[in-house]
Amino acid sequence: QVQLVESGGGLVQAGDSLRLSCTSSGRTDSSYTMGWFRQAPGTEREFVAAIVWSDGTTRVRDSKKDRFSISRDKEKNTIYLHVNNLKVEDTGVYYCALGRNFVNLKLGYWGQGTQVTVSS
Fold first, then answer.
1. pLDDT digits (tens, 9 = 90+) for 44-76
2. Residue 83's closest CA among 73, 92, 96, 70?
3. Cα separation, 114 vs 117, whole angstroms
4. % of residues, the chain, pLDDT over 90
5. Maximum Cα–Cα distance for the chain, whole Å?
6. What is d(CA 5, CA 22) in angstroms, rounded to the nearest whole number?
7. How far is it, in rounded angstroms, from Cα 94 to Cα 107?
8. Strand, helix or coil at 111?
9. Which phi and psi angles does 108 have, rounded to 5°?
10. Which of 61, 67, 54 is nearest to 36 (CA)?
11. Which of 28, 30, 113, 114 is exposed most, by the fewest CB atoms within 10 A?
């Protein structure tokens, strides 16, 4: 059974940097994609960034490419979301996801989410 555990959220100041982590377990092959979604109160969950586990190909939401990036550590079975110059509008619950590819990422597995609150 695949499990995803996120960490790294919390209360931060605008302008700070942050790194979220998501560690996966229970996966027996390397043909999958992992990524991050954000959900603010009263809104739908939106895609932030994703990475192909096997070759490291990444995709980041266009509006976030200047401040967000994603990376992976194969030895630790962990992906990271790096955020620079945090803004109040970055506030939300960040969910880790694991799926077959970029298109089907939302149809796969989800973590429990980690809250990020950015104060001005």
1. 999 999 999 999 999 999 999 999 999 999 999
2. 70
3. 10
4. 91
5. 43
6. 5
7. 16
8. coil
9. -95, -135
10. 61
11. 28
Which tokens sit at 33? 């994609």
State the distance between the two ends of the chain, measured CA to CA, in whole angstroms. Answer: 40
Region class of 85: left (phi > 0), else alpha (psi between -120 and 50), else beta: left
* Residue bearing tokens 């550590």: 73
Residues paired with 94 in a beta bridge: 38, 114
CA pair distance 65, 49, nearest whole angstrom: 9
Structural tokens at position 75: 């030895």
Q: Is the alpha carbon torsion for 1, 47, 78, 100 positive or negative?
A: positive
Tell me 26's DSSP state.
S
State yes or no: pLDDT of 28 exceeds 80.
no
Pair of tokens at residue 94: 């960040």
In sequence order, the 6+-apart residues with CB closer than 8 A to the CB of 16 are 86, 118
Please report, rounded to a whole number, the percentage of residues in the chain having pLDDT higher than 70. 100
For residues 25 and 78, what is the distance between their CA atoms, to the nearest angstrom?
Answer: 9
Calpha distance 56→72 (Å, rounded): 7
